[in-house]
Structure prediction request, 290 residues.
Amino acid sequence: MSTTFQLDTSTSRANPTPQPMRRLTVPVIRARKTEGVTGQPLVMLTAYTARQAQILDPHCDMLLVGDSLGQVIYGLPSTVPVTLEMMANHGAAVVRGSYRSVVVIDMPFGSYEASPEQAFESAAFLMKQTGAAAVKLEGGEAMAPTVAFLTNRGIPVMGHVGLTPQAVNVLGGYSARGRSDAEAQKIVTDAKALDDAGAFSIVIEGVVEPIAIAATKAVNCPTIGIGASAQCDGQVLVTDDMLGMFERVPRFVKRYEDIAGLIDRTVARYAEEVRDRSFPGEDQTYQPKA
Prediction:
C-alpha cells in the first residue's frame, strides 16, 4: 500500500495531518441556524473507515458513523443487529481519519431505549472509545427525556424523526412517513420535543416534503434531511449509495458516480493480466543488481 495515504503518526490521533486544523464543534454546527434561518446548508455523509473519512472530511461539516454499516459493511438485513462494539470500532477509525468535521456516532438499537441511564452508559462508552463529538439516537417525543438527560450531562445529541430504520419491525417497512394527518402532526411534534430537550440538530428521514419543511420551520436547531426536502438546514446520504456502490438504492438517493462499475472493470483488467502473465511486469518485480 502506498505510504502517500498513510496517517501521519507524528501527529495526534485527533489531528492526523502534518498541519493540524481546528475541528468544527457542536456549538458551531448549532449556531449555523439563527432565528430560524441557515445561510449555507450543512453537509453530512456517512463514514465507516479511516481512509473513507480522510477523503470525505475536507468537504463535510459532519461525518456520521451510521448504524447503516450493518448493511453496508456487514451485509446484515437491517440495522437492528448492530452492536455497540461495531459502532465503537468504526467510530474510532473515522475519528482517526478526520481532522475537520464533527464526528457523530449512531447509538445502535437496544443501547438506549430502556432508560436515560442506559443511554448515558452507552453514549459515554462510545465517546470514550471513539473520541466522537456527539451521538445520534432515533425516536421523537418518547426519547425527549433521554435527550435532555444526556445533554445535561455533557453529551451532545442529534435526534432522528420520520422514518426511523431501527423501528422497521414496528413501521412495517421503509415507506415514506407523514402521509396521514395524524402521522404528519406527530413528526412535527416529535421534532419540537427533541429541539426543546436540547438536541443540537435533528435528522428528518423519509418524510413527505411539506411535512419536512414544516418540521424545519418549527424547530430552532438545524434539521438534516435525507429523503425530505432541500429546504432542510442540511443534507445527509449514505456515502456508498451516492457513490454507486449498490445497484438498488432508495428513491431519494442521487447516484453521483458508478464506483461499483469502476471497481468491476478494474478488477477484470487485473484478473486478465494475471492470467496472461503480463502482471507483474518488470516495474513491479525486484531484479538482481548488476
Summary: The chain is about 35% helix and 15% strand. The first strand starts at residue 33 and ends at 34. The first helix runs from residue 26 to 30. Residues 86 and 102 are 20 Å apart (CA to CA).
